[in-house]
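haha ok so turns out i had the wrong file open the whole time. this is the CORRECT one, sorry everyone. sequence first:
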Amino acid sequence: AGLTLRETAVVIYGRHRIDRDWPGTALRDRMRRCRQRGHALCNGGYRDLLR
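then structure:
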């Protein structure tokens, strides 16, 4: 199974920043956008980068 959004954020930004900033929405929204973009790239979106 994969990591939760928060667990992924801890890997990228570190526990201190996540503990401090996660209750707000900005960092969570940023992580959601990054995850959506990653899924899009995995589902064929990478081809657009090659054009």
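The chain has a mean pLDDT of 93.
again sry for the mixup
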